[in-house]
Amino acid sequence: MSEQTDNANDRTPGEASRTHTLEELSREYKRSVPADLREAKPFEWYLREVTADPRIARNAHQRVADMFDHYGTRYDEDAGVVEYLLASEDPIHDGENTFYGREVHESIHEFVNKVKSGARGLGPEKRIKLLLGPVGSGKSHFDWLVRRYFEDYTRRDEGRMYTFRWTDLCSVIEDQDPADDTVRSAMNQDPLVLLPQEQRDGVIEELNGALDAPYTIRNEQSLDPASGFYMDELLAHYEDDLQAVLENHVEVIRLVADENQRRSIETFEPKDKKNQDETELTGDVNYSKLAVYGENDPRAFDYAGAFCNANRGIFSGEELLKLQREFLYDFLHASQEQTIKPRNNPRIDIDQVIVGRTNMPEYRDKKGDEKMEAFNDRTKRIDYPYVLEYTEEAEIYRKMLRNADVPDIHIEPHAMEMAGLFGVLTRVEEPTDESVSLVQKAKAYNGEIDETDEIDERKLRENGDRAADIAEGMEGVSARFIGDEIAEAIMDSRHRDRGYLSPLAVFKHFEHNLENHGSIPEEKLDTYHRYLELVREEYKERAIEDVRHALAYDVDEIRRQGEKYMDHVMAYIDDTTVEDDLTGREQEPDETFLRSVEEKLEIPGDRKDDFRQEVANWVSRRAREGSSFDPQENDRLRRALERKLWEDKKHNINFSALVSAGELDDDERAAWVDALTEQGYSAEGAREVLEFAGAEVAKSELED
């Protein structure tokens, strides 16, 4: 993004205008339109085309399943989950709608598996895919993204589909309204449905013989009532000469999904029960045609119901379980029988992926309703929880900032991560193992488990799901709330002429606004304030660590100490002696020195051997690879050595002076600020963290 901006700024005004001429814009648009979008083809052409590429005749589940694979996949071996790039990278929107978090990608993986099972005819094609999750978990945005990609996919050659229209009807049907001389297939059906079932089965058998796919082509649909009427009238006129009917009165046209035009994609949302009836789903009488065709004539029906519009594509039900029970009954036939039965009209076959979304309160209410048993049996629930890895959660906020017109402000280190940590703490269940704290559990979920830690992440997740009402991550503070508070903190910082956003500013907004957020239960407020204090404590440790790195960091000394540590570790493991640097005499490994390093990582005495062996193995691996020993390359060892160096030096640092600018030499403070800016701080933010960490260390020194 920054490179594009820089290049744009380098252009002259004349160059910019040439780039955006109407001619160029027109060419770009034309390239985005399928070449055959405006063309009408004969039915014979379609038969040849579908024989050459049987995938053209896929049903909705098969096309949606292939769509997910088309944009790319990546397999996460650790999680055993396929990541679909349309969600993890969002290629057609330049990453604007990427999704983060292991739990979210597990949910997407499960959703796609159900669609793929439906593509194979294993049952889920007759079920509603119900995305269940808390408010602000991203389920609606994922549903929206799937619809956008389906639109894009049907514009591509790989996703193309076709329908048909009737032409020159008035020449045969005497009472046909001249306005209806050419009529598009009301349900946008595949042209194959024009063939009687016996002949269609023969064509489909041939298609499946040439099909290279994990599913088979199937189509047992009947023509929609209006098309059925035209077919009967035309066959009677041509004395059952099907070829004459199809050659003289049928044109095949490209079908591109378009939600705005309600074509092969439809969204449906609950309204007030007084203003909503079943015709919104199934269609209704076209009263403007009643005077022309008369009552009960299929030509006098308006195929404008949501299920009609979604045919061949995706039906999306927003807040589905908020619908009245009577409306949900319409979903029973639509899902199980794949038909709809409009009032005073014959049944209509449908082909679509039915997706519903619902929040937790509505799900709990309907789950306990015995009268909803049939509906519940026809749904495949897919849990869509909050993210439980706080660094992944932080990426959600960064995405929010990338997609917005953010003021010129510097986001300080840890600001997004600590906001994410607070969100995660509200979502995970308290550990049942008293030896593991809530923050340790969050770190374990974030992948921060050292080999010597006795923390079983898998067991923590299993226990968390058992302890939760439905699943872990289905309750807590939403990313939406946290994002709103970050936005407020940014604007508040700008009003105060602060060019940076620190974690302390974010904490302040959390603390002030928890009570004002309508989705946070009052009984949770005390708990959430306690979690906020845990996050403050975690940030304090990180801030001190950063200042420690700035004030006491010495590459040469860390290398010397690291080499000394490894000499003594190898002697300890091999049960040999080590040469003393000063006297040159052989001596036993210095256990006091070894423990002074290891204790900085809080490694207990009964685990020291594991840690020493881990580091020794790491050194051996590097030696085999031809790499020299460098303690900077081992994160745990580096941190331990830095902390030891800090302990050795901190008594010579006046921490109280860090809080008061007047007590510190300007050059010394400037050097420390420079050291912090190298870690990603702004100059203003560096001064703040110096004062904050200095005050905390000074306070702890006094307490000691």
Write the layout of secondary structure elements.
Blueprint (H helix, E strand, L loop, with lengths): L1 H9 L2 H7 L2 H11 L7 E2 L1 H10 L7 H11 L2 E4 L4 E4 H4 L13 H18 L8 E5 L6 H17 L5 E6 L16 E2 L12 H14 L14 H13 L4 H8 E6 L9 E4 L10 H4 L1 E2 L1 H7 L7 E2 L3 H4 L4 E4 L7 H13 L1 E2 L7 E2 L3 E6 L1 H8 L5 H5 L1 E5 L6 H13 L7 E2 L3 H13 L10 H8 L11 H11 L11 H17 L4 E2 L1 H11 L11 H28 L2 H20 L3 E2 L6 E2 L3 H8 L9 H17 L10 H15 L5 H5 L6 H12 L5 H21 L1
Parallel strand pairs: 4-14, 4-15, 8-11, 11-14, 16-17
Antiparallel strand pairs: 1-7, 2-3, 5-6, 5-7, 9-10, 12-13, 18-19
Structure overview:
- The protein is an alpha/beta fold and 704 residues long.
- The protein folds into three domains: 31-382, P-loop containing nucleotide triphosphate hydrolases (Rossmann fold, 3-Layer(aba) Sandwich), CATH 3.40.50; 390-538, no CATH class; 563-634, no CATH class.
- Helices cover 51% and strands 9% of the residues.
- Helix 23 runs antiparallel to helix 24 and helix 24 crosses helix 28.
- The longest helix is centred in the C-terminal third of the chain and has 28 residues, at 525-552.
- One of its GO terms (molecular function) is protein kinase activity.
- InterPro entries: Prk_AAA, PrkA_C.
- This is Serine protein kinase PrkA.
